[in-house]
Amino acid sequence: YEIRPRDWSSDVCSSDLLASDGVDSVFAPVGQQAAFGRDLGLGRDIDVLFIGDIKKRFRRRKLARLVAELRALGRRVEVRNDVWGEERTRLINRARIMLHIHNFPWDTPWMRWNLASANGALVASEPLSVPDPLEPGRHFVSAPLDALAGEIDALLRDEARRATMVADCRAVMQEKMSLDVDRKSTRLNSSHVALS
């Protein structure tokens, strides 16, 4: 199957939108890569970490509320928007949970899952519009904002469960969210892509 770059979509929501306009596309996830980091085996002294843009008032308000709830539960929370490369790898390696708060209700933030799973952290998120191929409760924590702090706190009390969820998430990200790409010919190994 020969693919032109305009046929690629890195998330299911975009593929669905293209299909509604009569444009065929192939789901081609970003996939794991060395730049996302690796598990350094550091002590995890940060309970919850958020890395991302907080310019939008909608996200900033939700994040402030959740951070306050987590801190009231005695949890150490860090919020950063200015960390890259090896510094980001070291920071995520210190975190047990990496938080996702939607910028938009249809947000499909696979980059956060790539970063977290590569570095040994688990994602906690508001419910995703399209979680496939991941399963809420098995590969990440998922709860409405009103319940998310409590779900995170409960998981942080069960390190064995957290570690199992990280390992399960990492396996799915490597198996189902990566593609074999021959960059010279732009041919995809179709065994990794569901073609319709």
Offer a few descriptive terms.
two-stranded parallel sheet, 6 helices, 196 residues, alpha/beta, 5-stranded parallel beta sheet
* End-to-end Cα distance: 12 Å
**Strand coverage percent:** 15-25%
Radius of gyration: 17 Å
List the secondary-structure elements in sequence, H or E: EHEEHEHEHEEHHEE
Main sheet overview = 5 strands, parallel
Helix content: 25-40%
Compute the average pLDDT.
Answer: 81
What structural class results from the helix and strand content? alpha/beta
Shape: globular
The number of helices is 6
Number of strands: 9
Arrangement of strands in the largest sheet: 4-3-5-6-7
Name the poorly predicted regions.
181-196
What is the strand and helix layout of this fold?
Elements: E1 8-9, H1 12-20, E2 26-27, E3 46-51, H2 57-72, E4 77-80, H3 85-93, E5 95-100, H4 110-118, E6 122-125, E7 141-142, H5 145-156, H6 159-176, E8 181-182, E9 187-188
Parallel strand pairs: 1-2, 3-4, 3-5, 5-6, 6-7
Antiparallel strand pairs: 8-9
Helix pairs in contact: 2-5, 4-6
